[in-house]
């Protein structure tokens, strides 16, 4: 299976640059994966496709202001860092630009008398391991000096930080938002619960594994980066009961899906646990937990569109994307949504 098989045409003007004023008023393209039928809806209509006893699975990770800038002590050059993964004790895996300036042993100042860093190692992927030295609470410092790590295709400044955050974000640690969840409001979630739909929360800290581009010709040669996940006891119980009584497990976003399918692959059921996953889902994968998927429109040739194709069928998905382009849907992180079921 070739990476090029998951390419599609997208005019640049359809890449959403800003979030809608009202989160839940984005468009919703509903795809029946059995028939390929498509329906054009508004996101609030998602309640019409959820039944009492179904389970909606949310990723409650919280995005940190992961883009920070340091000044090299050696020559005062400015270096940009994207924090990817907390490795403990003030040590982080990071992406760095320009990488050639971030050599092992390089020391940087991020804010005078507050936070400094030293490059400890360079990984085969090119990521840098940096050790931070700071006075105070690390995340409070990040809030002060960091910027939200919106994707490179978003050229406009994000005026409100919380618009790149789900309303239910809680567990600090992501370097990108689980964007399918950006469409939900507290009132919409309340309505869903009032209709007898259960909500289960899991955590997957979005990192390089989710958005790293596929550069190899054969998708099987692509290596996923690991990401940390957690499933609470109550969520595991709800999901298992949902499956037992024959109701739908509806994943909000590819990250929720990858969490559940990773846990099932390891334990044969959903259990309370935490760990790291590098699961790569592409056509041919047999889903054991997810029955429906709420997701955004993803980049061409990305692991995310491959996952959606694995669930709903490549021809169905690529046809849906073509229709979405024709109908001028908004694409990517701040764009519209799709429900595949």
Folded structure, characterized:
The protein is α/β, with parallel strands linked by helices and 341 residues long. It has two domains: 3-63 and 160-340, 3-Layer(aba) Sandwich (QueA-like), CATH 3.40.1780.10; 67-145, Beta Barrel (Thrombin, subunit H). It contains seven helices and 17 strands. The strands form three sheets. A nine-stranded mixed sheet has the order 2-1-17-16-14-3-12-13-15. A six-stranded antiparallel β-barrel has the order 5-6-7-10-9-8. The radius of gyration is 20 Å and the shape is globular. The two termini are 24 Å apart. 42% of the residues are buried.
Which geometry do the CA atoms define? globular
Chain-averaged pLDDT: 95
Give the distance, in angstroms, between the N- and C-terminal Cα atoms. Answer: 24 Å
The succession of helices and strands, N to C, reads EEEEEEEEEEHEHEHEHEHEEHHE
Q: Tell me what the CATH architecture of the largest domain is.
A: 3-Layer(aba) Sandwich
Give the proportion of residues in helices: 10-25%
Q: Which residues sit in consecutive blocks of at least 5 with pLDDT less than 50?
A: none
Alpha plus pi helix count: 7
Secondary structure category: alpha/beta
CATH topology of the largest domain: QueA-like
